[in-house]
Design brief:
This protein has 985 residues and is an alpha+beta fold. It is built from 30 helices and 23 strands. Pfam families: Peptidase_M16 (PF00675), Peptidase_M16_C (PF05193). Belongs to the peptidase M16 family. This is M16 family metallopeptidase. Keywords: Hydrolase, Metal-binding, Metalloprotease, Protease, Zinc.
Length: 985
């Protein structure tokens, strides 16, 4: 089950993204990966700059040994571990998904912690510089060379720098001789081939400063303050990776050379290759490429991390900023990390506290839903950061500014756990969910994507974890859970917290002058109140498994070339099925119901967002969301709800063994929406945070612009004040929702690891058994219309913030995407070409914006709604210049056209992504199956997608540029932060 607590927090992002996701309509939605098992510590993204949750002994930066050499845990037998004479290590892991592809990672055990005082920011700066001129590539050559081989900058090649590591990532779309040669040459040049020319360093300074500007936020500044106060004697608080503005602006070339030569050394490097390849071939290439690397005579040493100061008793700490999005309250224990070998005993010994923390987190989330609760949710955790500091944390998300009411909640739930521990029902639920996560990892292991695996391996290098198989992880977890008792969890929780000094931390917008004294007083007063043992919950069974007489199949069509089966059931429900082997033991489901946002009741701005939160957070019939979490513990049942532009969407993911229950749950949600009051309570509690973010970040301006581009149509707008949201009740949405849920057309689409003949009985017993549904009806034409702004014109938006940031946006109206996908394919390539010119001019030459973008957007629900746009972030004083440059680049493209080489460099990565998407369940579900019976042309679009992109001519691209990218079709938009500006109320 998806936890509904974050739903409202995501509304703002959804509202802003309504307009400005530079999405390509042919690209699938981002695919969720398997939830990473806690022991395996798999990740699918670079770790946050604050570190990862781990507890092993890291191998020495100059060691050629591996964690398994000191452990009783066996490494993955398919993995090849090796080292070169110069000390460089490598890991090669054959992996079949996706076919023919290869993911390379170069891990360097050096980050911002290794910097001297006058190098603060150089480690991250160097990550940029290796792309700006090397032994084999001039600054102008590298990215175009990659693009011609189907490798897109950002999407397929990227890097990140953290406190203790720098990782370069390169995903090769094929393993031809040219592609392999370029891939290994690039990685070798990153290792020791960067030229670090003075003029290139100077050119890049603006890019780094722009990145610093774009990443600046109140949250980031608050984190820096917290590090400074809680770890005052450590190096961590003085070495945030982005560095200082002074160093970025003035550091001479020799400071870069010093870091590069002393820390980019083979003894600190681990090369990782994961993919559909012959390990012997890759091992030979690694040895040929990197054996000649040399270690310096005076290599850099590991830093003195300083010391960790633990407090005694209870020490309050206040962090306040008027722009803070929300209020948080927590207990934090800070202590020195104690290294431990990664072994079976170590992993099992961590489980009782980990399970205890997960139970306490669930208690907070469920307590948040009770009437009058001042909290939105909470969590408990233990983290070990960079093998240096151990953090124990119990945190609450506080509703609005009700922190004084929340202090007793924090203290008493903490004390309840300390005094009484946990119930057997809580333990059973937690164990079932933990065990299920590991079991599913085993079942899906053969279809893990290589890029995710490669990044996970790179992220674990400094943690000293054994690279295990999912089977090994499961065996360890089974051994630990077999004897794990509620008493064990209680003892582990008490052993960790008892006798520790704690920081009592409040993060809020405005704190009174006596906040520290008040915090401590409230906490101490709470300790005098008795607490009762946790209540024992009675576990109910799922109440909705019978829906009447099973339906039958009225018609069936096999679309053999696409592997799709289309059904119409006897009750009018339509079904699309596509069995795949892309994700083992995973089935993805989507349901389209009715007409969604297009038929929203008039003049009820924001009602779609309210409805989405209430339906998703309101449970099913007599079951609350908390009930469902307990009932489905250990099961793979999940569903989400969203009000789409032209349909209500119910979605889910499950496994073959839980498919029948998943179908019953989704059918029950349609027939018996919960509307439980806690969903509305949670929604209302989060609204102040939502509007605080609208007021103090660019998301508010982006949302305003999104509505403006749609003629401020109430269906696509956001309420001006929180009062509108707070006034809505179930009565406002129930007629609208139930009219569709009980009477409108339903289309069910299913993609994944199943056999059609095995799942059809479940479909017929559930969706097939509901009342008769009509065929979809075409809506009146006026429903699909919005008023797009006239051009040319200029428009400005602002928001209140002391952080100096701005956005320069150019918008050109195009034809809409609805029934016009082939046209949009061409616009996509034009957008890529324009985006590449923005990168070259604005980022590389001017250094004025970190990541200028261009793309197209359109609506499959609205008629004639489409536009191309550019976006560049920078300081407010630079925004007009960025608008001017963007308009000039577009006008030149319109007048002079693109070149064949530019088209080739845009097309090749697009074709590589098409091949990849063909093995992506998300693509088939969202872009092909969903809506395909109402719009059969979607099937033809899937058939001719690759050939159509291959057929696109330069003449077509240039005709589109000349038609659309002219100054008289341009809308210039500026968004700026302004200190103290009065935003619309």
């Amino acid at each position: 089950m998806r936890n509904p607590a974050p739903v409202i927090l995501s509304l703002l992002l959804a509202a802003a993204a309504l307009f400005l996701i530079l999405r390509k309509p042919e690209t699938p939605q981002e695919k969720a990966t398997d939830p990473p098992p806690p022991v395996a510590e798999a990740v699918d993204a670079p770790p946050a700059e604050t570190g990862e949750d781990s507890d092993p002994v890291a191998a020495s930066a100059t060691s050629t040994t591996w964690p398994q050499d000191k452990s009783d845990i066996p490494a993955d037998p398919k993995a090849v571990f090796g080292s070169l004479d110069n000390g460089m290590r490598y890991i090669i892991l054959p992996n079949a998904e996706p076919p023919k592809r290869l993911s390379l990672r170069l891990h360097i055990a050096a980050g911002s912690l290794m910097e001297a005082e006058d190098q603060r920011g150089v480690a991250h700066f160097l990550e940029h510089m290796v792309f700006n001129g090397s032994k084999n590539f001039t600054p102008a050559e590298l990215i175009p060379r990659m693009q011609r081989l189907g490798i897109a900058f950002g999407a397929h090649v990227n890097a990140y720098t953290s406190f203790d590591e720098t990782v370069y990532m390169l995903d090769l779309p094929e393993q031809t001789e040219d592609t392999m040669k370029l891939g290994f040459t690039v990685m070798r040049d990153f290792s020791d081939g960067a030229l670090l020319k003075e003029e290139e360093i100077d050119n890049e300074r603006g890019v780094i400063l722009s990145e610093k500007t774009s990443r600046d936020s109140v949250g980031y500044r608050m984190m820096q303050k917290q590090f400074s106060q809680l770890l005052p004697d450590s190096l961590l608080e003085k070495r945030f990776p982005i560095g200082t503005e002074e160093v970025i602006k003035t550091a001479p070339r020799e400071r870069f050379v010093d870091f590069y030569e002393r820390y980019y050394t083979p003894s600190r490097m681990t090369f990782i290759a994961v993919g559909d390849m012959d390990p012997a071939v890759i091992e030979t290439k690694i040895r040929e490429t990197f054996s000649s690397l040399r270690n310096p005579e005076n290599p850099g040493s590991d830093p003195d991390m300083g010391s960790v100061t633990s407090v005694e008793g209870l020490k309050p700490a206040i962090f306040a900023d008027k722009e803070a999005t929300g209020t948080e309250l927590g207990l934090l224990s800070v202590d020195t990390h104690t290294p431990r070998i990664d072994s079976k005993e170590t992993r099992i010994s961590r489980m009782p506290l980990s399970v205890a923390n997960s139970i306490l987190g669930l208690r907070f989330d469920r307590l948040a839903k009770t009437e009058g609760s001042p909290i939105l949710g909470g969590s408990a955790s233990k983290q070990d950061i960079f093998n240096f500091v151990e953090l124990g944390s119990i945190d609450l998300n506080v509703a609005d500014d009700r922190w004084e009411e929340s202090v007793p909640v924090l203290e008493q739930e903490f004390r309840r756990a300390m005094e009484y521990g946990f119930t057997s029902a809580e333990l059973t639920e937690a164990k079932a969910n933990l065990l299920n996560a590991y079991q599913q990892a085993v079942k899906s292991k053969d279809t893990r994507p290589s890029n995710s695996l490669a990044t996970a391996i790179a992220g674990s290098i400094n943690d000293g974890r054994v690279l295990t198989t999912p089977e090994t992880d499961l065996a360890i977890v089974e051994a630990g859970l077999e004897t794990l008792s509620a008493e064990d969890c209680h003892k582990a929780f008490v052993d960790f917290w008892e006798g520790r000094g704690m920081h009592l931390i409040l993060t809020t917008k405005v704190a009174p002058s006596d906040a520290e004294e008040t915090l401590a007083k409230l906490y101490q007063e709470s300790t005098t109140q008795p607490v009762d043992p946790p209540k024992k919950e009675v576990l109910a069974s799922f109440a909705y498994t019978e829906f009447g007489e099973p339906g039958t199949i009225e018609s069936k069509e096999e679309i053999t070339d696409l592997g799709i089966t289309q059904l119409k059931l006897s009750n009018g429900v339509t079904v699309n099925l596509k069995p795949t082997d892309f994700e083992k033991n995973r089935i993805s489901i989507s349901t389209r119901i009715g007409s969604g946002r297009l038929t929203m009741p008039p003049n009820k701005v924001g009602l779609a967002e309210f409805a989405g939160a209430v339906i998703e957070g309101g449970g099913i019939g007599e079951h609350t969301v908390d009930d469902l979490q307990r009932i489905f513990a250990g099961k793979n049942i999940g569903f989400g709800f969203a009000v789409g532009d032209d349909a209500f969407g119910l979605s889910g993911q499950t496994t073959p063994e839980d498919f029948d229950l998943q179908m019953a749950a989704m059918t029950a949600q349609i027939l018996h929406p919960g509307y439980h009051p806690e969903a509305i309570t949670q929604f209302r509690k989060q609204i102040p945070m939502l509007y605080q973010q609208l007021k103090h970040t660019s998301a508010g301006s982006m949302q305003e612009m999104s509505a403006w581009l749609r003629g401020d149509d109430p269906r696509f707008s956001f309420p001006k004040t929180a009062d509108t949201f707070l006034s809505y009740t179930v009565d406002d949405i129930q007629p609208w929702i139930e009219e569709s849920f009980t009477k409108a057309d339903i289309e069910l689409s299913i993609v994944g690891d199943f056999k059609s003949e095995e799942i059809l009985p479940s479909i017929l017993r559930t969706f097939g058994a509901i009342d008769k549904r009509p065929a979809p009806e075409e809506l009146p034409a006026e429903v699909r219309k919005v008023a797009f702004p006239e051009s040319p014109q200029s428009k400005s938006f602002s928001y209140e913030s002391k952080i100096a940031q701005g956005r320069a946006i150019l918008i050109w109206k195009t034809e809409g995407i609805r029934h016009n996908h082939e046209h949009f394919r061409r616009l996509n390539l034009l957008g890529d070409i324009l985006g590449d010119r923005l990168r070259e001019e604005i980022r590389e030459k001017l250094g004025a914006s970190y990541s200028p973008q261009a793309g197209v957007n359109g609506s499959t629900a609205l008629d004639d709604f489409g536009f191309m746009l550019t976006l560049s972030e920078g300081k407010p004083d630079d925004i007009e210049k960025l608008v001017e440059v963007s308009e000039s680049l577009a006008a030149t493209l319109a007048k002079e056209g693109a070149t064949e080489d530019e088209l080739d460099r845009a097309r090749k990565p697009a074709l590589a992504d098409i091949d990849k998407n063909l093995r992506d369940n998300g693509y088939w579900l969202s872009n092909v199956l969903s809506g395909s019976q109402q719009e059969p042309h979607k099937l033809e679009l899937a058939r001719n997608r690759k050939s159509d992109v291959e057929s696109i001519t330069l003449e077509e691209i240039n005709d589109l540029a000349a038609k659309y990218l002219t100054p008289d079709n341009a809308i210039k938009v500026t968004i700026k932060s302004e200190e103290g500006v009065q935003t619309a109320e």
